[in-house]
Amino acid sequence: MKIFFTLFILFFSSSAVSGDGDLYICKTVNLVKAYKYETKEFESFDFNFKKNKDSIIFGKGGYFDEGILTINNSVGDYFDGGEEWNRFVYNDGLFMFVSLVNTDERQDVLTIIADCKLF
Prior knowledge:
CATH topology: Porin
Helix content: 10-25%
Strand content: over 45%
Shape: globular
Structural class: mainly beta
Strand order of the largest sheet: 1-3-4-5-6-7-8-9
Number of strands: 9
Number of helices: 1
Oligomer: single chain
Radius of gyration: 17 Å
CATH architecture: Beta Barrel
């Protein structure tokens, strides 16, 4: 029983902090903006982000240009988060992001899907 308890503590304590400070290098595979009556596809681009305990911080340039998104859940190689109008999910090398704009002047949805590698 002691061995099981020790292994349990070691496994969960190491996975709780693993990934903090890791750098992810990503390339979009699908980038689409949906408007009320049409959709528009955009050129692929590269981006990177650093994962911390409570947030991901994007590198310079591109759509995310040094932006920060809050991590709400993190287990193993899965984490997700964002804010009210911007959400993301990372799961085993796949990064998905959605941004919703709903104002009197503009209503659209941006989706970004990217393949990422841990650097």
